[in-house]
Design a protein that fits this description.
Layout: E1 13-16, E2 47-53, E3 70-81, E4 87-93, H1 97-100, H2 120-135, E5 147-153, E6 192-200, E7 206-214, E8 229-237, E9 247-253, E10 261-268, E11 296-300, E12 313-320, E13 337-343, E14 363-365, E15 371-373, E16 385-389, E17 413-418, E18 442-446, H3 448-454
Parallel strand pairs: 1-10, 1-12, 2-5, 13-17
Antiparallel strand pairs: 2-3, 3-4, 5-10, 6-7, 7-8, 8-9, 11-18, 12-13, 14-15, 16-17
Domain DUF7705: 33-461
Keywords: Signal
Organism: Triticum turgidum subsp. durum
Length: 468
Amino acid sequence: MAARVAKSLLLVLFLSSCSAAAVAIRTHGRGYVSAVGDPGMQRDGLRVAWEAWNFCNEVGEEAPGMGSPRGADCFDIQATDDEQGQPVYKVVHRVTDADNALRAGDPFPGTSANSTVTDTDRYAAAKELYLGDRCQVPDSPVPWQFWMVMLKNGNLDTTAAICPDNGRPARPFAQTSRFPCPGGTGCMNQPLVFHNRTALDDAGRWLRGGLFGTYELDATDLGSSDVSYYSVVWEKQIGPAGGAGWAFHHKLRTSAKYPWLMLYLRSDATRGFSGGYHYDTRGMTKIVPDSPDFKVRLTLEVKQGGGANSQFYLMDMGSCWKNDGAACDGDTATDVTRYSEMIINPETPAWCQPGRRDQCPPWHTFRNGTRVHRDDAARFPYAAYHVYCSPGNARHAEQPTTYCDPYSNPQPQEILQIVPHPVWGEFGYPTARGQGWIGDPRAWELDVGALSHALYFYQVASSVLSVM
């Protein structure tokens, strides 16, 4: 499910992981075991990549004049002393502009020209692996590659039948208001992407880089409110003075032609199938965490909202497993991507209500293990849920239910969206509308593992399931 966002700054940490879990890692001297390669984003030598998806998380067609929609900004820092013994820093990039400009059909450096891939979807997946090799950092128990910035165009041309129907070939059908495609053919295009390579400021003390762009391929004024726009800027003070780590500044603006856009900051698994992605992935999560034993720490300041139709996720955790609990294997007809998203936009209502049980998960589990069915109007916390939808291939979903949009992932999906409510306080999540929103910047410690262990996800009766 894509998020409708208009004129907003959006920062979402999306924990996406589906590969085998490792068991050993150093504690970084902080009394905890970190599942990510760069805990706290403290490392001066940043590793960040970006990807752009169409409605069903593929490429379709590359944007004119742009490379395949995968890129990276990965670098190391070299330090020497000047004549006064003061440190002098130099940024040494590991990914070139030529690397980022690679398009479908181009051979990857170091490979045979005969091994080129012309399919745009498969080329982008291969390019991610290539960039991962350029950015990879050796570590224990496994090496890691980069944080991932994700862009998504929510337009769907239903007459073209480009996106599969619950992982199977789709048939064309007439355009509906549920699936926007302003302008018709071509509405699912990839964005223009302009990259500012990370560099030191004139004083040699601050590192800054970023990317920006638009989906309007003919745009002449990116500042116009009628033009879609996104930007991501990352910055950090170099050396010991930069103890706060990297700060990421995100901005996203929709337009009449592109009313449904997404912008994420993801921590994907370093191997395997990430949520919503049916190719081998690269990322920052070197240990795939198991529920209930993991937490996420992040600091978030929301500068501007996007109105009642926008969804702003404090946390989106995603994974992939089949309805019988088996691991995903790339079979898009039987794999299911599962998402749970905390929406902190205070204008987002709870669609789950006693009179709309089809919008609710069948069960709510409290932190103490008490389970309450949605038919129990006296005890079920309806106001804690925005919406729940069942995977389209769930043959035994408890009725009544709403089935998830069958087109916006390459495989069926299950989505559970929650909103601030007292029942989430035990997990460190916001308990009241407005918490963490504009004017209320916060450092969060979210017990994501315990929450994911408690939330309802569909599974075939008698199957055994380990969430995340």
